[in-house]
Amino acid sequence: MKSTVAPYQRILYCLRIVTDDGTTLRFAQYPYDITMSNGEVYRSDAGYQFTGVEMGGGFSPATVDLRSFLGIHPSVTEPTIRAGIFDRAKVYVFATDWDNPVEDEEPIAKCLFGKTRLIDDQYIKEMMSLVDLLNSTVGRSFSALCYKEFGGQEAGGCKVDAEALQASFTLTSVTDGFTFADSSLGESDDYYGAGKVWFTTGDNVGVPAQKVKSYTASSGQIVMLEAFPYTPEIGDQGIIEPGCRKRLTEDCKNKFDNVDNHGGFPYVPGTRFLRKAGDK
Predict the structure, then answer these.
(1) Is there a contact between 29 and 50 (Cβ–Cβ < 8 Å)?
(2) Which residue among 15, 96, 135, 152 is least crowded, i.e. fewest CB within 10 A of its CB?
(3) Does the predicted TM-score (pTM) go above 0.70?
(4) Domains, the chain, ranges and CATH?
(5) Helix-then-strand count for the chain, H and E
């Protein structure tokens, strides 16, 4: 049983979002901004709508939907959503008394940001309660490609010092948010393929590292899997980290001399071999 329950006559639903980098956004489903007893302001902006909480007594995860218009809050725009700034963000939903608001007075749910749908100038964000983590698949899988995270230093991890291999860059040309170049980078073709890029200057500072699709040594051209939310400009600086495509020979052996820590199983027979009848 809850220790505190907001009065139903003056109930107010609020939501607090905390991203991985500590940025905190506070929303209230109310015509005006609400100031809590601790001084924190929950913004209204006349655009937020909660679709309610669905919660059962079993292990099915509770779900909450947040609907609003893009751009109402300066931190919630289509580029920031697509860039994954809100991925894995923690969400706290609670009810309180609009006449005497207290933060977290009646906790309703603690969630993680899930799938986002963008419809015209609106976004619908699905949030799943923490019990949804129990539905995650854990354990090792057996495949030809290595299962380890590149640069992981945990016991039994990759053990490559990825941080020591990082390089700084300054953009000398920009095509768009997907494609840009630093002609002085050097290294061989595809050295940075499947690696990561993040910016230390310019409009994309604070955007999570994005994955590299391909790298061309002759021009220093970097092509991303997904575009950065803001088109970089010539002179923008950042960090680029080499990547691993999880292959035994091309990556673990030839690129990083790390065969002893390879986590793939390239010689495990596939289903075609297992289904073979006789000597055919």
Answers:
(1) yes
(2) 135
(3) no
(4) 8-131 (2.30.110), 163-246 (2.40.10)
(5) 2, 16
